[in-house]
TrEMBL record:
<dbReference type="InterPro" id="IPR009875">
    <property type="entry name" value="PilZ_domain"/>
</dbReference>
<dbReference type="Pfam" id="PF07238">
    <property type="entry name" value="PilZ"/>
</dbReference>
<dbReference type="GO" id="GO:0035438">
    <property type="term" value="F:cyclic-di-GMP binding"/>
</dbReference>
<feature type="domain" description="PilZ">
    <location>
        <begin position="10"/>
        <end position="94"/>
    </location>
</feature>
<protein>
    <submittedName>
        <fullName>PilZ domain-containing protein</fullName>
    </submittedName>
</protein>
Length: 133
């Protein structure tokens, strides 16, 4: 992260994703979902608490990403921010994931909640289609 006028900004843009894996810290392992990802770091959501503090070294293992090493930068309400090690192979692995496996993820829950809140029903497709001879 870079700092400009006391405002912290990311070095690389993160993209939303839905990748499942695990985080290993010392002898413990926790299942996680990777929420967003960039070549410099990731945000994770844990299923159970991870007993590690900021600055702890961890390993992330996911099927489409492989093994990534990094440092915990923040923890809040079951979510963890990881900064990947500069000397690791993380940049190549994340770039490969985006090239071969990544599919753009849109926030599905927010759309469903919005429709329910406004109580708007969509007309059926058959009612909107008209055939002209």
């Amino acid at each position: 992260m870079s700092s400009n006028l006391k405002i912290t900004a990311r070095k690389a843009d993160r993209k939303n994703c839905r990748v499942f894996g695990s985080v290993k810290y010392l002898n413990s392992e926790v299942d996680v979902r990777i929420l967003n990802l960039s070549v410099t770091g990731a945000a994770l959501e844990t299923k159970t608490p991870l007993h590690a503090s900021s600055g702890s070294k961890v390993r992330i293992e996911a099927e489409n990403l492989g093994l990534l090493e990094g440092i915990i930068r923040w923890k809040h309400n079951g979510r963890i921010g990881i900064q990947f090690d500069v000397n690791s192979n993380a940049r190549a692995q994340v770039s490969s994931y985006f090239r071969f496996f990544h599919q753009e993820i849109r926030p599905v829950l927010a759309v469903r909640q919005l429709r329910a809140a406004t109580n708007v029903e969509r007309p059926s497709r058959s009612a909107t289609l008209t055939l002209k001879p």
